[in-house]
Amino acid sequence: MKGNTPNAIILAAGVGERAAPLTYETPKGLLKVFGTPMIERQIKQLLEKGISEIIVVVGYMKERFDYLIDKYGVELVNNPEYATKNNFVSAYYARERLGSSYLLMSDNYMTENIFSAEETVSWFSCPFYSGKTDEWVVKEEKDGVILEISICGENCYAVQGPAYFSQDFSDCYKVLLEEYYDRPESNDYYWEHILKDELNRLPPMYVKDTTGIVHEFEDLDELRRFDTSYFEETNNLIMQTISNVFKCSQGDVSGISVIKNGMSNRSFKFCLGDKSYVIKIPKADSGKPDNRRTEKEAYTAPAPYHLTDEVLYFDGESGIKISKFIDDCHDSGP
Predict the structure, then answer these.
(1) Helix, strand, coil tally for the chain in percent (to 5)
(2) pTM for this model (two decimals)
(3) Homologous superfamily in CATH for domain 236-324
(4) What Å distances lie between residue 215 and 142, 166, 222, 248, CA to CA?
(5) What are the C-alpha distances in Å from 153 to residues 90, 186, 196, 215?
(6) For 212-226, how does the pLDDT look when each residue is reduced to its tens digit (9 = 90+)?
(7) Closest Cα partner for 86 from 116, 112, 59, 48?
(8) What is the pLDDT of residues 2-54, one digit of tens each?
(9) Which phi and psi angles does 225 have, rounded to 5°?
(10) Which residues belong to CATH 3.90.550.10 in the chain?
């Protein structure tokens, strides 16, 4: 770190599965909001405050982030375990860079610049939720110190967005990262799990009220509600395929939910009006075109006998298949 100015560590290694199908083609942090990739907006906000030491932890489609090195002077750190462990492991691979540090998720969008070249206490971005919420909520003292983090609450603050670690906080947190790395149950942990479970072993962390400032988008529907341009154009080939097949606008496609992300295929359910469909997309390395054409023939031949799901579209070159969604179905495997 340069002088006493904080550095910034941006976690960008994850697949962002719930934002399918956008993240099948683009890492979530590189999705554009109002024309700018979310991670670039964060980097620009940091640079505006004189925070020039920026580390981006990458994994999924990591080559897509290379341009940030020349454009903004960031450093990339690889997380080789992004596909098998949750994002706490991204913090683990960047642990030696933790000091006076901001810790960010690449897919958050801040309407205002909440960073500073000087910080006095550790804090976590916390918007206030009126009514009930399923978010990770906090119980705090009158002075704003976080006493407890739990799941679900009502009329309270919830952790969401960036955090700032003081040097003392980072020193303690790094020890915990190394402890948790060797625990099998931690494979599914977010970096916040350690904070939630170990507050008593960490220096004080304060609530930073970011109500209305920090936004996160779990899926395409949430993104559309914030940036309405996604109703008309997603710049996504899979969404364009659906639009072409059904002769509808991309905005008509809603209710996307991932069904399967297997070794060779990805599948998700989507809705058009009151009807539901399933699309299967082979992964790039899942097979040769000849195999896909054979698979198409395997579905086409028995179609008159209604022995398979009702296939509406099958591209023998790409292997993309769209069929009607069947409620209450299950795998009849061995």
Answers:
(1) 35, 30, 35
(2) 0.90
(3) Phosphorylase Kinase; domain 1 (3.30.200.20)
(4) 26, 24, 10, 29
(5) 28, 24, 15, 19
(6) 999 999 999 999 999
(7) 59
(8) 447 999 999 999 999 999 999 999 999 999 999 999 999 999 999 999 999 99
(9) -65, -25
(10) 7-120+165-203
